[in-house]
Amino acid sequence: GDPRTIHSVVQRLSNPDRKIRELALQAFAFVASDGEKYAAEALAQLLEHKDEQIRRCSVQALTKLGPGEGRSAIAACASRLEHAQERIRQTAAQAIEALVEQGDARAVAEASARL
User: Fold this and answer.
1) Is pLDDT at 35 greater than 60 in this prediction?
2) What pLDDT does 38 receive?
3) What average pLDDT does range 11-36 have in this prediction?
4) What does the alpha-carbon distance between residue 92 and residue 10 come to, in Å, rounded to a whole number?
5) What is the mean predicted confidence (pLDDT) over 16-44?
């Protein structure tokens, strides 16, 4: 996917309008192909957003990244397990849990290494 397109879709994931966020989440699966390291980091940054709905949306989008980008998503989430704010640590843990539910054994290893 084109980085500009991915950036545009990721920005819409933090839109205050729930419908726009939902549409952006649907679009994300189509624009972020395997190997999109930028997409994983951009989504992980949204794990730190003050709005809980936007953080949840970012967790959902992270699980839509292809298997080729799973490692970047896991690393981006795991680095937030040590964040000073508890809500961000919790959201990062939720994202890793969602990746684990997809069967990504790397998520388990990365999270375990941080505990």
Assistant:
1) no
2) 75
3) 79
4) 17
5) 77
How many C-beta atoms lie closer than 10 Å to residue 15's C-beta?
15
Q: What is the model's pTM?
A: 0.68
| Distance between CA atoms of residues 95 and 55, nearest Å | 9
**What is the token pair recorded at 92?**
């990062």
Nearest to 61 by CA among 32, 104, 38, 84: 32
d(C-alpha 88, C-alpha 29), whole Å: 24
Reading the block at residue 41, the tokens are 């980091």
Mean pLDDT of the chain: 78
At residue 92, φ and ψ (nearest 5 deg) are -60, -40
Reference 9, options 51, 65, 81; nearest CA is 65
What gap in Å lies between CA 74 and CA 17, rounded to an integer? 28
Across 43-59, b (16+ Cβ under 10 Å) vs e yields: bbebbbbeeeebbbbbb
